[in-house]
Every structure is written in structure tokens, then in C-alpha cells.
Design brief:
Length: about 325
């Protein structure tokens, strides 16, 4: 549907610009600048705008970071949307982007949902590229709303089959999928807690995630809602941070995506801000003495279609820095 809308606007803009440029009145000729600008946005967005990939570097400082994890490098990748973005002439952008990620030599790669667009077959078609991602502590993944195959009008039984196929494909890539669960990464005598939950978003998006289940067995201070261990949480939809996760538990870092930054921004105006309070970038809330909890919302590696204007594709690199 988005592709059809863009094609319709493209054709309409050409027709309107042609009619206005043929007008005899000067002010009508000037009006042709508007459809011509729309044409520029469409052409640029489908080419240079989408080809660009930003490597965004963020440093998270906290005294809670264990000494052995000082300098630890986490790469956050969200919203690849294989079938929506990377087909035909755009397919090579996946390999190029993943080579750039590997060149960063990350300690951990987190694939934070919406890796497919409609079906797991899209991942299978890019299996070579997807399985090429390497990190010292591996590649983690969680489910996003698109990973539940909910936009293909399947019967409940067929949808359940496709969801299981998605989970199987993630595991076949060598990734560790976190399905409302947690585990610890150990270095020397230090460790960090990693939590991953299924998608939870405000309706109409799926509310599958169960943070209580994901934290089962973890000791949480009821006063501060924190643990004694530095924590990292993966949850696709940024709305989960305030509405679903923090009422129970406050992780040091939460990684999310989902919004794409609307794949559009112009003259510093971001229309996505009217739909989400936390739509892109880093957001902080007090956690405990001398420490703040951070939500990192990536505007995405791909998108619903291969178009970006003023909102480039991105990969976020978070480096942990221990403070006293």
C-alpha cells in the first residue's frame, strides 16, 4: 500500500507540474514548484535517502557497569523489514550494512524486532547475509509486531505455523532468540543481566510480552525496582518502556525500535513526534543514586518500503563506560 501511494503521488505530481508550467499566468507557473518539490522528495527518498546508513555512536556512563564490561560495545539493529525494503536493486544494502557492523568488532549484537516484513521466507532468502553477523558474545533477537505474521490474513493455525517458522529461522542463523526470558553474560568474575521480551505495544499492536515471566528468578529491590546486576533489556516497541516494563523493573539500558522515525523528516520537523513520546534517540530517567536508566530507540535499518527522506537508516553502537 505505501508503494502504491508513493507511485500515485509521483504520477500526480508530474501531471500537476506539467499543467501549471503550461499556464500563461506567472503565479500559476510559480505554483509548479510545489509538485516539483514533491517529485524531488520521492526520487531522493527512493535513492540517496535510502542508500545512506548512519553508524550512530552512543556512550552510556554509569557506576553500575562492572569493571570487566568497561568499554563493552553493543550494536543495536532494528526494523530490517527484509521483504519491505531489501528487494531488487536494494538487496545489496543488507550485505554492505552488515559488513560495516562486523567491522565495528562488537561484543554483542542485538536484533530488536521486525527483522522480517511479512513472512519468514524473507529471512530465508537473505540467510547468507543474516548469518554473517558476528560478535564476541553472539547475536540476540526478539520479536517485533511484524514477526508475528499478522499482516498476511492467515488463519490462526497457519499464522501459528509461520510464527514458529520465524523462531526456527532466527535460531538457524545462529542467533539466540529471547522469548520472555533472561540470561547472564559473564566476563571474569563479573556479569550483566540480559532480558528479552516478546512484543508489547499499545493497541492495536500485539501485547504478547510478559516481563514478569522474563524476570522470573531475578531478585528485584521493591523500593528502587532495580537489581544488583547491571541490566540490558530488549523490547521492540518503545511504548513498553514506560507502560509495561518500568512499572515493575527499571533496566539500566532498554533497546527498542518500531517507529522508523516515520522514515521522514523535513526542515527539522518530525511528524512521528505526534504519535510517540519516545520515537528516536536516547531518553533518560533517574534510576538510583549517580545513575540514570536509558531507553535507546533506533529509527531502523530498513523500513516498510525503500524510502527515507531526512531520516536515514541507522545502526546504533552503545559503548559502556564505567564511572566512579
Amino acid at each position: 500500500m505505501p508503494s502504491i501511494i508513493i507511485a500515485a503521488v509521483f504520477v500526480l505530481s508530474i501531471w500537476v507540474a506539467y499543467k501549471l508550467l503550461r499556464a500563461k499566468v506567472l503565479w500559476k507557473k510559480c505554483l509548479a514548484l510545489f509538485p516539483l518539490f514533491l517529485l524531488y522528495i520521492i526520487v531522493y527518498g527512493l535513492t540517496f535517502g535510502f542508500w545512506q546508513l548512519n553508524i550512530k555512536e552512543v556512550t552510556y556512563e554509569s557506576p553500575d557497569i562492572p569493571e570487566a564490561f568497561d568499554g563493552y560495545k553493543i550494536v543495536q539493529v532494528t526494523d530490517v523489514h527484509c521483504g519491505g525494503s531489501f528487494w531488487g536493486p536494494y538487496k545489496g544494502l543488507v550485505k554492505d550494512g552488515f559488513e560495516k557492523i562486523n567491522a565495528l568488532q562488537p561484543d554483542l549484537i542485538c536484533m530488536v524486532g521486525d527483522i522480517q516484513h511479512f513472512l519468514p521466507s524473507e529471512l530465508e532468502e537473505l540467510k547468507e547475509e543474516m548469518s554473517s553477523l558476528k560478535a564476541k558474545d553472539g547475536v540476540l533477537s526478539v520479536m517485533g509486531n511484524h514477526d508475528y505474521c499478522a499482516y498476511s490474513n492467515f488463519s490462526p493455525a497457519r499464522q501459528a505455523q509461520e510464527i514458529q517458522r520465524t523462531r526456527n529461522v532466527h535460531k538457524s542463523l545462529g542467533w539466540k532468540m529471547l522469548e520472555d526470558e533472561h540470561f547472564y553474560i559473564h566476563r571474569d568474575s563479573d556479569s550483566i543481566l540480559v532480558i528479552g521480551e516478546e512484543n508489547w505495544g499499545l493497541k492495536p499492536f500485539p501485547q504478547v510480552g510478559n516481563i514478569k515471566k522474563a524476570l522470573k528468578g531475578v531478585t528485584i529491590d521493591p523500593t528502587t525496582k532495580t537489581t544488583n546486576t547491571f541490566s540490558l533489556c530488549l523490547s521492540h516497541d518503545p511504548n513498553a518502556w514506560k507502560h509495561h516494563i518500568m512499572p515493575l523493573f527499571i533496566p539500566n539500558i532498554t533497546l527498542a525500535g518500531h517507529t522508523h522515525g516515520a522514515q521522514f523528516s523535513i526542515f527539522g520537523w518530525h511528524p512521528i513526534q505526534y504519535a510517540y513520546d519516545e520515537w528516536g534517540g536516547e531518553y533518560y530517567v533517574p534510576m538510583k543514586k549517580h545513575s540514570k536508566a536509558m531507553l535507546s530507540v533506533s529509527t531502523g535499518f530498513g523500513g516498510n518500503l525503500p524510502f527515507r527522506f531526512g531520516m536515514p537508516r541507522e545502526v546504533v553502537v552503545i559503548t559502556l563506560k564505567r564511572t566512579k
